[in-house]
Amino acid sequence: MEGDVRTAAEIGALKDTERAFVLGEMDRKTRLQFEASWHHWARDEQLAPAGNWTTWLIMAGRGFGKTRAGAEWVREIAQADSSARFALVGANFAETRMVMVEGESGLLSIAPTKNRPLWEPSLKRLRWPNGAEAYLYSAAEPEGLRGPQHSHSWCDEIAKWTNNSGQALATWDNLKMGLRLGRAPKIAATTTPRPVPLVRALVKDSGVKDSGTVITRGGTEDNVANLPAAFIEVMKADYDGTRLGRQELNGELIEELEGALWTRAMLEECRVVCDEASQAVRVVVGVDPPASQTGDACGIIVTALCADNKAVVFADNSVEKSSPETWARAVADAARIWGADRVIAEANQGGAMVKSVLQAADISLPVRLVHASRGKVARAEPVAALYEAGRVLHAGTFPRLEDELCGLLIGGGYEGPGRSPDRADALVYALTELMLGRKREPRVRV
Q1: Strand, coil or helix: 248
Q2: At 199, phi and psi to the nearest 5?
Q3: 143-156 b/e with 16+ CB inside 10 Å = b?
């Protein structure tokens, strides 16, 4: 409001929605000056904890403000201590630069003009006016941290660090061994949680008395005042109530089930960006019909076999608590939209009725029934092996399907959401037909 002059402390004391309005009314110069007063407007959980700690792990959901908290921690120390020497470590050099240095919440963006560090990309170095310095490192190259000495370090998205050959743990160990400058070396690590060895080790360490590791936790909604309302709505609609949502939005560390056929890490490795099936030589829709209208969901999964002999999961069109006519129409729509060559449906629940319901929805629908003679896990094991071999990809994220896959256990048993893994069963039927069934001549697309 015109003529409304407030101090940074007064604005910082406002409720989130009121503060967002006041900031929106400011001109760019005034807002930048206010934002430079980080301690006045940051949430308490974005500020470094008190006490004698050596490792501060911010493990929170997406949009929480982790990157901003890490960058502001670095900026505050750099401006106060000319002898500070930082190691900035990201999953790779590109992410370290684009997120930690040049990103919207990176060190260059948050710095006041008079204290902005000099960015020297060729040297992978930031230098503040007072002489403090920060060097960029890649977690994929642990040997790069063998030798250099630092007083502080900010490590971003440590759960994303590649650890196929132990690189992540080696990077962390080399980093800690090089923290031997200054009187009180410290590490701030920011990440969305995933049950990878490094994150699990830090969480375990935080429970040990006098370990020096402290954890800040939080979720996406903690920062709702600074996030678009549409983003919050979409995230809730797509992921609320799923294990992936608990991890990515609520910031919970979801441990892998012991003996699970699929793991979160396996599914992340198979994820690709692709939303159309133009390269497919064969498309199959897998269906796991519900036993009743008020019972389980009808699993409807669209898969395709591509020219490189890899399968791609393109869509999860499953429907819940629907009548036979409704789920049959959903199957027919999926087959039409994706140009399916065949629909594979389990026949145990109603047999011929399933086929007649599907064909009633679309008389031309090519339906083949399969009889589940083996248990769910026995049917799923060969399909899980295809994932391990890198022969199945996911075109995007399918939280409910992936929750079910991660609930299937070796040797029998299901500990995922719901009474039955309907989506997972539909996927198994489709991929068995595409990858493990008898050889078929692929359709040539013109």
Answers
A1: helix
A2: -65, -45
A3: ebbeeeebbbbbbb
